[in-house]
Amino acid sequence: MIYTVIIGLMPFLIRSFISIFDKTATLEYWINETDFIGLGLVLNLSNINELEDKDFEDKIWKTKNIGLSVVYIVLFSSILAIVTYSDFKHSTDINKWAVKCCSILLSLVSFFFSYSIYNRLNTLR
Question: Taking the model in full, what pTM does it have?
Answer without folding.
Answer: 0.85
